[in-house]
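Quick one: co-fold with 2NL.
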Amino acid sequence: MLKKVEEYGKQVEDLALSSVEDAENFRLRFLSKKGIIPQLFAAFRDVPTEQKKEFGQQLNALKSKAEAKFKDVRNALRQGASEAVSDIDLTVPPFPLEMGTRHPVSMVRREVVGIFERIGFTVSEGPEIEDDWHNFSALNFPPEHPARDMQDTFFVDRDPDFALRTHTSSVQVRVMENQQPPIRTISPGRVFRNEAISARAHCIFHQVEGLYIDKGVSFADMKDTLLYFAHEFYGAETKIRLRPSYFPFTEPSAEMDVYWGLETEADHRITKGTGWLEVMGCGMVDPNVLRSCDIDPEVYSGFAFGMGIERTAMLKYQVQDLRLFFENDKRFLDQFKAAY
Ligand code: 2NL
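Sure, here it is.
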């Protein structure tokens, strides 16, 4: 028996292990449950008592030697492999992806568009750089109207004039030019005005405009459509009122107010003490505008309306400064996770 242990000891020393397979075969042969060394331990019981001490010592030495050799070889092989391939630990779990949120301007735009889509309006879009005709002339702006001034409009080119659109009415002019009534369209988009930036104004903002043209469309149809919108967007109990106003492209024109209430100090501040809040402009499309687009005002009539998205979002989410919508400050945007 002692001889056998000695012989195995020599084998353990002499075996050259140069690959992962060699090391694994070595482990299976000597160290695994049914390997040589456990078998020798099992045979220990039958060794005569006077030999037990020496045999035990030799056996333990063999086991240590085999284990140490296996460990060394494995470590050497591992190190070699990691140097050859990469030291990136592919088992480390990834960083969790941070959930983003929709921008508040997008949330309001989608909600407003959705409300009008449900009553048959389709979405229309158009270019952000417009010619004079689509942005001004077709919309009944007289040649000397102040909105055409350099101070109000960003011009890209002069004679012929091209400018950044100042409203999305230009999109609706394009729809009317390309399609005879009935027309029911909603035009969301980015618009540009040369204004000083403040808490209430920005040179870039977003609008949603709507247009409905058909035979026999009346001011009452407009009021009922806008009341439906107010109930959907501001709440089922919302009261509205229409105040006379002026736009070059509508006649008559009006501002729509919703009743906001006067419960808190903030209500007093934002409604200037009246309880009423202006939320959009509207009116019956001027016959001159229809004529410009080859629609006969003797046959057709219609209404149009427009609202600012940032302004609407400021009311909905109680944002005090319009500039926050353009700064992309994560601390601001993160606050809309709950609204999305
Ligand atoms: C506002 C007011 C308004 C319109 C937009 C419109 C478009 C065509 C013809 C006639 Cl093609 N009108 N749009 C009408 C009235 C008001 O917007 O305060 N917007 C922010």
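If it helps, The longest strand covers residues 204-214.
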